[in-house]
Amino acid sequence: MSVRVTTGDFDIGAEIEILTAGRTDIGAIVTFTGTVRGEAKGKPIVSMALEHYPGMTEAELVRIEHEAHARWPLQGSLIVHRVGELKPGENIVLVITASAHRQAAFEAAAFLMDYLKTSAPFWKKETGLDGRAEWVEARDADDTAMVRWRRDENAGQ
Amino acid sequence: MSVRVTTGDFDIGAEIEILTAGRTDIGAIVTFTGTVRGEAKGKPIVSMALEHYPGMTEAELVRIEHEAHARWPLQGSLIVHRVGELKPGENIVLVITASAHRQAAFEAAAFLMDYLKTSAPFWKKETGLDGRAEWVEARDADDTAMVRWRRDENAGQ
Amino acid sequence: MGAGDETKMVTLRYFAWVREKIGRAEERVAVPSEVRTVGELVGWLQTCGPEYAEAFARAQVIRVALDQKHVKPAALIAGAREIAFFPPVTGG
Amino acid sequence: MGAGDETKMVTLRYFAWVREKIGRAEERVAVPSEVRTVGELVGWLQTCGPEYAEAFARAQVIRVALDQKHVKPAALIAGAREIAFFPPVTGG
């Protein structure tokens, strides 16, 4: 289990290697990579700035990572989130989950992303071709995505 | 879209690079990697042999990849499956899906794995410490996992 | 394997433990014309010798592909060039 | 920002457009003792000047963290060292 907030890029292959090196108890590894898209609401964007809340960010990422390990039998996990100035096509976020079974790895990775999107204190600002920068608005779909895990809690799963 | 059946290993980072190079329309990339576990039914295994049906294997992988693209808006995908002799900890299978949105990428990757596990003609044989080799039996859980996508078909989704 | 008056030649392929039990990976056989479906073909193969009887003893677990496409026991074999028999798949 | 007879000093932090509207990222303020909850604190901040009035105009979209933990408007602020205000998060 580890989390990292960084201005630098990450190397997905190298991170999987670190997580799985020398281990034979892992059967399934899922990675999710989020990247900067070159368009927002149909308009081109030239860059994205990511602000965060140092200290709270790491605490929130650790908290949701623990929550994932409490819900699924995971052999390992990693959350890396970049901050600062990014260009279209660049990496933003990496989540890796490793488990003996594929369903646990898939579900835990989706869970981590859903929680991260609604509770980790990051904010995106996009700059368009005209140089105007606008804060990205939160999507209702992200709240909806998170709610499905809440239902599971209520069901005692 | 591409599929590959190979005796050699794959490089996950390099494959993501190939799939996403120069593109700014992708927002989400999911990878699934299946690896050889060092135990089966509580007993250590020393190696795994993967047999397949050359020709049909590739046709089935192409078919399920097309099916995934018909169901989800994917910007790209890759299926790589190894055959031959593998050791515990080694890679078996790689699935990559790329989409503008994370849910499509997650669902399509899970779908590809579920279909692959029940329709692609591969067979595993595990060799234990005593040198005895046994064919792996199909898991009911894999059929159950696939059925959820069938329900979606019936629901017209 | 016997060939009647009216037969058709077809390539049969075997994989995994079906291959091991029969002792070969592939063969050309003359299928009697009264054998019309995949299910009937499995039934006929069960009568072709002890190795076939053993390989096809649990007929319900045998999967069949006709010209490299999965088919059900009711599928007609007419026109097929290659018919493959194998256990449920276990890749991934 | 005014300080009454009975006040407590607390660090306020602002992020994203809340920070931009207020014009600073952080400040130490004396909160009147009658301000007990996070919701009341937002209400009080709205009265602290036009930049605060604008930043907190849509109070229902403002998220609050007390000592770096998400809290609801009803949460008591007593004992908090650091209170942060920000829009709904948009990372990932």
Find the CATH topology of chain C.
Answer: Ubiquitin-like (UB roll)
Category by helix and strand content of chain C: alpha+beta
Strand count of chain A: 9
Overall pLDDT level of chain C? 93
Beta fraction of chain A: 35-45%
Classification by helices and strands of chain A: alpha+beta
Tell me the total number of β-strands of chain C: 5
Question: Which stretches of chain C of 5+ consecutive residues score pLDDT under 50?
Answer: none
Approximate strand percentage of chain C? 25-35%
Instruction: Enumerate the spans of chain A where pLDDT stays under 50 for 5 or more consecutive residues.
Output: none
Instruction: Name the CATH superfamily assignment of chain A.
Output: Molybdopterin biosynthesis MoaE subunit
The largest chain-to-chain contact, stated as pair and per-chain residue counts, equals: A-B, 35 and 35 residues
The helix count of chain C comes to 3
The best one-word shape of chain A is: globular
Q: What is the spatial order of strands in the main beta sheet of chain C? A: 2-1-5-3-4
CATH structural architecture of chain A: Alpha-Beta Complex
Number of structural domains of chain C: 1
Query: Share of helix among residues of chain A?
Result: 25-40%
Question: Mind explaining what this structure looks like?
Answer:
The complex is a heterotetramer, with two copies of chain A (157 residues) and two copies of chain C (92 residues). By secondary structure, chain A is of the alpha+beta class. Chain A has one domain: Aldehyde Oxidoreductase, domain 3. Chain A is built from four helices and nine strands. In chain A, strands 3, 4, 6, 8 and 9 form a five-stranded antiparallel sheet that branches. Chain A has a four-stranded mixed sheet with strand order 1-5-7-2, sandwiched between helices. In chain A, strand 3 and strand 4 form a beta hairpin. Chain C has one domain: Ubiquitin-like (UB roll) (Roll). Chain C starts with 6 loop residues before the first strand and ends in a 6-residue tail after the last strand. Chain C contains three helices and five strands. Chain C is of the alpha+beta class and 92 residues long. Classes of the chains: A alpha+beta (157), C alpha+beta (92). Chains in contact: A-B, A-D, B-C. At the A-B interface, helix 1, strand 2 and helix 3 of A face helix 1, strand 2 and helix 3 of B. Strand 2 of chain A pairs antiparallel with strand 2 (28-35) of chain B, so a sheet runs across the interface.
